[in-house]
Specification:
Elements: E1 12-13, E2 27-28, E3 43-49, H1 51-58, H2 67-74, H3 79-96, E4 109-111, E5 117-119, E6 125-131, E7 136-142, E8 144-152, H4 159-166, H5 169-178, H6 180-201, E9 212-215, E10 223-226, E11 235-242, E12 246-254, E13 261-267, E14 276-281
Helix pairs in contact: 2-3, 5-6
Length: 299
C-alpha cells in the first residue's frame, strides 16, 4: 500500500450556511492533504461519517436539506432511519461544499430514472452514498462515474439463499467451493463490489445483478466479467476493511482510463481512516496482476 507525502499543513472547514446556527464545532481538519478545492484531479476522496459525532457537530441538519429531502425523511416510520437519512444527506451537502465555493443549502440534488443521485447543473463533481450499521460512506470525485458500498459483516444473512437469487453462477460456485467458514466473508466481498458497481453505472443493484460477476483469482486481485452490453471503458475496483467491522468497495470508471488514488478520512474529525485495501482490480494502466496502487494512507 502506498503512502502519500504530506502536502502542506492546510485545513478545511466543513461549511455552515449563513444565518443558520448549528450545534457544536464545524471543523474538519485535513492537514497533510491538499486543500479539497485543488484536489481530486487524480483522486477519489472517501469520507466515513460517524453519525453520532456528526450530529454532535451539526444537529440533525434539517434546515439545509431541500424540501424534497425533508419529505423523503418524513416517509421513514422509524426515527432512527429518519435521523440516519438526514445525517447522510446533510453530510453530502457539507462535504461537497469543501470542493466548491457554494453553501451546503444551495446544492440541487436530483435522482436519475433508476434512482442514482446526482448534482443538477454543470458541476463536474460526482458523489456516491452508502449506509453501514454505524458508519455512512460518501465518495467524491471529479469527472468520473463512481459508486461506493459499505456493509457491516455483523449482519445476519442467509448466504446461499440470497446468493442464489442475485449472484452470477460463477459467484455461487465460488461460495460453495470455499466452504461454510469462508463463504460468509466471501459473500460480503461480492455484495459490496456488486453494489458499488451498480451504483457507478446507475442501473441499480436489482437490475439483473447476475449479468456481471467478480472473482478472486489470487490473494490481492479482483477479476471482473460483464455481459457484452456493458460500456468497455476501463474500471477500477478497490475492496477493503473499514472501521467497526465493515467491508467497503469503491468502483470508478473514468473517461481517460487512469486509476485514481483513493484517500479515506473520518468525518467530521478529518482523521485518516483505517481503510485497509486488500484487493484491487486495475484499469488501462494497472492490470489485474498488479499490486494495489490505488489507496494512499496519509501520515
Amino acid at each position: 500500500m502506498t503512502r502519500a507525502r504530506p502536502a502542506g499543513n492546510t485545513a478545511a472547514v466543513i461549511p455552515q450556511p449563513a444565518g443558520i446556527a448549528m450545534a457544536g464545532h464545524a471543523y474538519c481538519a485535513t492537514h497533510c492533504m491538499p486543500h479539497p478545492k485543488r484536489a481530486l484531479r487524480d483522486e477519489v476522496h472517501v469520507w466515513l461519517v460517524e453519525p453520532v459525532a456528526w450530529r454532535r457537530a451539526f444537529g440533525d441538519d434539517g434546515l439545509i436539506l431541500s424540501a424534497e429531502e425533508r419529505i423523503a425523511a418524513d416517509t421513514f416510520t422509524l426515527g432512527t432511519l429518519r435521523e440516519r437519512y438526514m445525517t447522510a444527506h446533510g453530510a453530502v451537502r457539507r462535504l461537497l461544499s469543501l470542493y466548491v465555493d457554494m453553501s451546503p443549502v444551495s446544492w440541487v440534488l436530483r435522482r436519475g430514472t433508476r434512482g442514482k443521485p446526482f448534482i443538477a447543473g454543470n458541476s463536474d463533481l460526482r458523489f456516491s452514498l452508502s449506509y453501514g450499521d454505524d458508519l455512512i460512506a460518501i465518495a467524491i470525485a471529479r469527472n468520473v462515474e463512481l459508486g461506493i458500498d459499505i456493509i457491516s459483516t455483523h449482519r445476519r444473512v442467509d448466504v446461499m439463499q440470497i446468493a442464489e437469487y442475485v449472484f452470477a453462477q460463477e459467484e455461487i460456485a465460488d461460495l460453495r467451493a470455499v466452504g461454510a467458514d469462508l463463504a460468509r466473508d466471501r459473500f460480503f466481498d461480492f455484495w459490496a463490489l456488486k453494489e458499488a458497481y451498480a451504483k457507478a453505472t446507475g442501473a441499480g443493484f436489482w437490475e439483473n445483478p447476475n449479468r456481471y460477476a467478480f472473482s478472486f483469482p489470487r490473494q490481492d486481485v479482483i477479476a471482473f466479467r460483464h455481459d457484452s452490453n456493458e460500456d468497455d471503458r476501463p474500471w477500477q475496483f478497490v475492496l477493503g476493511c473499514a472501521p467497526r467491522d465493515h467491508r467497503l468497495a469503491v468502483a470508478v470508471r473514468s473517461r481517460e482510463g487512469q486509476s485514481r488514488k483513493i484517500i479515506a478520512r473520518m468525518a467530521p474529525s478529518g482523521e485518516v481512516a483505517a481503510l485497509a485495501a486488500d484487493r484491487a482490480y486495475g484499469d488501462g494502466k494497472h492490470g489485474v496482476g498488479d499490486s494495489i496502487p490505488s489507496v494512499a494512507k496519509l501520515p
